[in-house]
Amino acid sequence: MLHRCRRGGMPRLFPHGPARGDRALPPGDDEGSALPLAPLLPFYGLRLARLHVGTNGLLSGQDFPRETQYVDDDLPTDFPAIAPFLADLDTSGGRGQIYYRQDGASDVLSRAAGYIRAGFPSAAFAPTHAVVATWEDVAAYEAVSRDAEPSRQRNTFQAVLAYDHADAYALFLYPDDGIQFFGTRPKESYHIQLELPARVGFSRGETDPGRENLHYSVASSEQGLKNLYQSSNVLTPGVWVFHIGSASPLENIVPAGAGRQLLGGALPTAPESVSRHATAEHDYPDGAFAIFSYDENEEDNEEFPFVEPTEVVAEDYDELGISLHTDINLQDRPSSLETDEDLLELVSVESPTYRQREDVQPYPDGGAVPAETDVHLGYPEGEVVLQSYPDSPLPFPRGRHIVGVDEDVSFNTDVFTYSAASQETCEQHHGLCSPHAFCTDYATGFCCHCQTKFYGNGRHCLPEGAAHRLNGKVSGNLLVGRTPVHFADVDLHAYVVGNDGRAYTAISRIPQLAARALMPLTPIGGLFGWLFALEKPGYENGFSITGAEFTHSLEATFYPGKETVHITQTAEGLGLENYLSLRTHIQGRVPYIPENFTVHIAPYKELYYYSSSAVTSMSHREYSLLFGHHNQTLSYRLHQNVTFQDCPHARARRTMPATQQLSVERVFALYNEEEQVLRYAVTNQIGSAEGDSDTAIVNPCYDGTHVCDTTARCQPGAGLQYSCECTAGYRGDGQDCVDIDECAEGESRCGPFSVCLNSLGSYRCECQHGYHLADDRHTCVLAAPPPDPCAAGRHSCAAADQARCIPRGGGAFSCECLPGYTGDGHNCSDVNECTQDRCHPAATCLNTPGSFSCQCRPGYDGDGFQCTPANLQRLTPCEHERLYSQPDPGHHIPVCDDQGNYQPLQCHSSTGFCWCVDEAGQEIAGTRTPPGSTPPRCGEPEPTARPQTMCERWRQSLLDHYGGRPREDQYVPQCDAAGSFSPLQCHGNSGFCWCVDEHGREIHGTRSEPGTAPPCLPSVAPPTVQPSPRPDVSPPAVGTFLLYAQGHQIGYLPLNGTRLQKEAAKTLLALHGSIVVGIDYDCRGKMVYWTDVAGRTVNRASLEPGAEPETVINSGLMSPEGLVVDHLRRAMFWTDSGLDKIERANLDGSQRRALFSTDLVNPRAITVDPIRGNLYWTDWNREAPKIETSTVEGANRRILVNEDIGLPNGLTFDPFSKLLCWADAGTKKLECTFPDGTGRHVVQNNLNYPFSIVSYANHFYHTDWRRDGVIAVNKDTGSLTEEYLPEQRSHLYGITAVYPYCPGARK
Question: S-S: 684 plus which of 67, 529, 1013, 1253, CB 3.0-4.6 Å?
């Protein structure tokens, strides 16, 4: 029985702390420590001899790299990783502790084994060792700020690895209120308010060159992280179990309950998504966890069947005082469901659906090549609903009851010859019948007939008296009045009470204009009333004739306007839980119905005419439009026909009347604007075409006035007497029925190697991995292993001397190039190792296909990888480096002392920089001095310590931020011996220098070019002439290209059509000391504009050679982020997330004014439609994110989008399609809408962490903070076509497209 799991106590963590002998990780921001393991720990196909415990919420089989190389990135990592909460964490200053130990205590092992058995009941596993790592009250890393108090939010979580010599399992535990923050702010975000969600999952690491880096993502969004403590995959909220290693290497991590559907307490797989490979991701939406939690913002278009009910039909009808019962009210009616709401909300329960495999590709010889994909783990084989019915006849062997019928058939032997070999019989085809039908052989073939207490056409049978659910999608192209309206795949849910003929229908998310116009068209929901109408004696409803596969077509012509609309409803069969699935398409024109008008439809009767494979009906219906005292009666003419496939062999035995009358005693239609739901409700009976006499006595079973439960059959007796009998799968007195748990009570017929899953009124059997259901649908038989495409040669990998085919099980495979080749495995090309400096400098390299060789030059000895001069004494490292240094002008050649050791002081011969080195020749952090200043004291004792000055504190802070080793292009302030700012400051080794005042602030006009240091002595005045044109401004080529902001530089990425010309990418403008965020291009003035959050300025520069950047706005800014240029009005607009403002100014900075300074929390992206004069911007306020619009003058401000958005970072207006599109780092979607908010649709729903976006031709290009690159997305297909990752790894901010012309300009 499917039920909501009551939330019990959260998991208590495994015992930890000093009392258990735990070690404690040193406090800090990026600490790590190794824990030796004995025995070795299986992980994927690896055997780990030690585990490294890290501050940042993860464990690894090797030492961690610098945190900047992984802490902000998505999975996979380059190293083996077990991540219960990977984020930038900090335990310094008493902010939490991290404990870890290896343990063999029985209480720990037995508790771990209990959790593992709950998730893997078939696994006979008894752990011998465990590793317990606990992050207790740890904090998120925060940059020091004088403006804000440090956060008091703390996280507590635990990872337990339980293993023996052959298998290993990981347990992640999250106590109640243990996760108080869900992400951390990147260190390089500066003033930009961004929070990257934590990642939970596993990564195998790049252990073999060229091998695919396997990984498994558990959660990477805020909602997925919330589900960590709200949900579980072992039915204990906050506990998650995974199989992570085995003696037989795992294809990937296996979550507890893998492959089982959520029926009757089956186990969720993961709180968010499963990434089995970097190339194949299968999302499991949070809606799949309705057993524990529900988030209406998550996608629900995947495999898991149940989503929390969202549409409540009863409330609307109750508010109107409507009762759909003839004589009694629902409140007075006994029911196994406690309230009307419980009954009617079932209209919106999602149908269980299962996708067909679409990953099999055609093969030239007519066979099939299995797609290069993953094996679906768990119980993938056949699934079927079984019902337990004590009164049902025992099934025929192989699952069907078969009856033979002798018929008197007259035929001419010259015309017809009976052939037992060609005739279809029950023995051969009984599998086409319903599980609750018997098969009958006739002279000309076989037919299926429903068993007693069931009804239908034999191929589909439903229990009498049971309630039924229908689900589907509705699409339409309508002309409402004169306004076109389009909608696609909106949800339809229906709920039918079979024992009294009530049918409720709800269509959600339909555009308001269309929904109001469709209110009179009750046949949309009336179809379900006819299908499951209450049957009078001797008459049959629609489902008894058509079953669950048919096509319903109708044409309605409205009067007096003669608007005509066509509707097609296609039923696609019964799914799990007997849900009927159908698709509806609406095409044509309907009259406009104004707002606030309601539609009233009087009860009606209509005749249905029945033939062998079709049902037709023609009628004329009236409806009234009501508003206040206004009452207008209109009508439409209706033609309907239902086509289906009947069984021709039993037509002669059918006794159903050729004409039947459908009586609709109650009919209602209404639209709820707040919920955006169109609802229909009807009460139906099917009976004689002549109708019933008014004086005839009607048994309550036939007019729906009985008091039987909604899951009970009404059995008529004499006169007005009747009895109630619970339908199959329920027990009770008929007036109150409860579900039978066939699995728990041992009444199921599931055989060995199967799992019984109970649900309302039924149960089903699923087979374990490696088995499939036999024809009886409850016996599991061993599945024949699928053929190995690699061994059979049925694969698409490159030649065997260039690539290898790797079988993945289940008929799947992957390709990988052999060492020495590069490519995707399908196409491999030789790697020229000689271009990679693999050989020693004194050796010659020879490239060969797939390999290379090295040979020392004459006069040297060695293997080519190491060469030493012949007959030369052994060199010290310093002497060796001097001897073999490349003659590169920019390369430093070390200085050695008389003993051949590195001199403590090293100076660059060409740049003039000096620094201290240790005995190994490695630079000592913080000792580098610029040219012209006093060299550092190397090896000399430090003077007596004194308090650090502001310059020294800033210097040390940046050194810590850079990890102690700043890159040569990163700025570190220079201080003199007294700790004051040196008058001359230079940016790394770039050669750019400037003068500063006593507070370290740059003196305007003193910045110089490389090679000419400015005079910064107090007695010398600063230069009065402007510096010469900057050599770091590199003009772009002609054509369309992208400009992107990357911190202290603006990058150039040309396009060839829409393809990224990565090889031609370069730095367009180096802006040392700046942090460029927003960027746009003025196509008329040929200038690029940008915001600088470090300098708190708005700037511009011409793209002409040698152009000098110019500051346009330099005051009144705090955190300028998004920026857009209106080339027609010669104006620019920007957002300031620090001041919560949107401002406007001319392109030269004049006529500046604030457009908006209220109702803004975190404004970020901004874009403009110059032609129509409209402005658009995003506000990613976490409490109420939105996209707003106004005119460019600030008039007519309004909210455009505020539903189903999370962190709308990027925004762009496409001047060609006239669509407004945005990239959302919260929902991970790329969406578009028309400027008026209509036509919203999703282009891509699996982005990483987009920041900015721009549109060009048929592509979008966005910057991504997970990938630190530019990603291209096809507008038509939504596919991610390619990406560009700059060599210098850091976060990318704004992006814009530069055209050779102005798009959309007036002519």
Answer: 529
Residue ranges of the chain with pLDDT lower than 70? 1-11, 143-148, 188-193, 207-212, 258-422, 576, 652-653, 692-695, 871-874, 884-890, 940-945, 957-965, 967-969, 990, 1011, 1017-1038, 1304-1307
**Distance of CA 660 to CAs 267, 541, 705, 1143, Å?**
48, 9, 22, 71
Per-residue b/e over 614-646, b at no fewer than 16 CB within 10 Å?
Answer: ebebebebebbbeeeeeeeebebebebbbebeb
CA atoms within 13 A on the CB side of 744: 9
pLDDT of 144 reads: 60
Nearest to 464 by CA among 389, 521, 353: 389
Distances (CA, A) of 857 to 417, 734, 886, 911, 1021: 92, 97, 16, 33, 58
Q: CA-to-CA distance for 1195 and 1189, rounded, in angstroms?
A: 9
Does residue 560 have a cis peptide bond before it, meaning omega lies within 30 degrees of 0?
yes
Structural tokens at position 69: 């190389």
CA angle, residues 1114, 1118, 1122, in degrees to nearest 5:
85
Among residues 820, 808, 809, the alpha carbon closest in space to that of 785 is found at 809
**Position of tokens 């070999």?**
421
Give the phi and the psi of residue 286 in degrees, each rounded to 5.
-60, -25
527's enclosing H/E stretch is helix 523-531
Q: Which amino acid type is present at position 175?
A: P
Tens of pLDDT along 725-751?
998 888 999 999 998 998 988 888 898
For residue 1092, give both structure tokens: 């600088």
Please state whether beta strands 215-219 and 199-203 pair in parallel, antiparallel, or not at all (unpaired).
antiparallel
The alpha carbon of 1198 is separated from its chain's Cα centroid by a whole number of angstroms, namely 29
Q: What is the DSSP letter of 1301?
A: S
Backbone angles phi, psi at 34, to 5 degrees: -100, 140
Cis status of the peptide bond prior to 591, with omega within 30 of 0:
no
- DSSP per position, 494-511: EEEETTTTEEEEEEES--
pLDDT in tens, 461-513: 998 888 888 899 999 999 999 899 999 999 999 999 888 889 999 999 889 99
DSSP string, 1006-1041: --B-TT------TTSPPPSSPPPPPTTB-PPPSS-E
Question: How far is the C-alpha of 193 from the C-alpha of 147, rounded, in Å?
Answer: 14
d(CA 664, CA 1075): 70
Q: What is the bridge-based pairing of β-strands 534-535 and 677-687?
A: parallel
Alpha carbon distance 1267, 1248 (integer Å): 8
Helices (H), 808-949: 877-884
What stretch of H or E contains 111? Answer: helix 106-119
Phi, psi (degrees; rounded to nearest 5) at 1273: -130, 125
| Cβ atoms of 612 and 619 closer than 8 Å | no
Task: Give bridge partners of residue 242 from the DSSP assignment.
Answer: 170, 255
